[in-house]
Write a structure and sequence with these properties.
alpha+beta
């Protein structure tokens, strides 16, 4: 029996000056971050990468088997690739050395989605915040301490990971008090709506925003935009990645 398998590839079309939602899973979705000390290790290298490369961290969460990042890169060179190389590489190295483990720590590629700096960034913030609520681990996102949600409600004077000034500017807010109040309202609304379904657009699309943003982003991609198309989703629009497919021969006895 022959089946058509669709294999999406992780996107990494970095263009400086944009906001990016980045996701990366542990190898084989293993729970390599199940212990708090390993999540703290990842956060340590996140702070170090922020200092070294000047990339603004707007939101983050490290769960038991994957991470989410919301980054703003206004560097002329585009520093996100080296930023990610440091964070993910050093985290994997320290974990494998400590546990005497060999082999890959991460899935081979992380995924990056460009996010428009309008209401879509708020939607993405909420999606990241609600991660562990969707997983059924906590009943409120602020209870998961290794997250931007927790840090915003408990801002740090030293060793802050989130670039508070940049985040306030992007959200058009004047103070941390305003941000904290706004975040509480976003979370309250999300919990009341009780929409806990995973939304694949945040982890599969090339870009998310209004039509003008997507058309402009598509022009910036130039030849890389070939076969990519803008499509409407429930909340707005997205620029979709083309799918890679191939035929595989299966023995029906081994399918299930």
């Amino acid at each position: 029996m022959r089946f058509l398998i669709v294999m999406p590839r992780a996107n990494r079309y970095f263009i400086p000056g944009h906001i990016w939602h980045i996701t990366h899973r542990c190898h084989k979705r293993d729970f390599l971050f199940k212990f708090k000390k390993d999540r703290i290790c990842w956060m340590h290298w996140l702070f170090e990468a922020k200092k070294r490369f000047g990339v603004s961290v707007l939101n983050y969460i490290v769960t038991s088997n994957h991470i989410h990042l919301l980054l703003s890169d206004n560097t002329a060179e585009g520093k996100i690739p080296v930023f990610m190389q440091l964070v993910q590489g050093r985290t994997a190295q320290e974990y494998n050395n400590r546990t005497k483990r060999k082999g890959a720590f991460w899935e081979d590629r992380y995924h990056a989605t460009a996010i428009a700096s309008d209401e879509h960034i708020i939607q993405c913030m909420i999606y990241i915040h609600m991660n562990m609520v969707r997983a059924g681990v906590v009943n409120h996102p602020v209870k998961w301490e290794e997250s931007g949600c927790y840090e915003i409600q408990h801002p740090k004077k030293r060793y802050a990971i989130i670039d508070y000034a940049s985040l306030l500017k992007i959200l058009n807010l004047d103070s941390m008090d305003q941000l904290q109040r706004a975040q509480k309202e976003w979370i309250k609304d999300a919990l009341e709506q009780n929409d806990m379904q995973r939304n694949g657009k945040w982890t599969e699309a090339i870009a998310i925003g209004n039509v003008y943003f997507l058309e402009h982003f598509q022009q910036q991609l130039d030849i890389k935009a070939k076969s990519r198309r803008i499509k409407k989703n429930k909340e707005g629009y997205e620029l979709s990645e083309s799918e890679i497919s191939y035929n595989v021969q299966f023995d029906p006895k081994t399918i299930f």
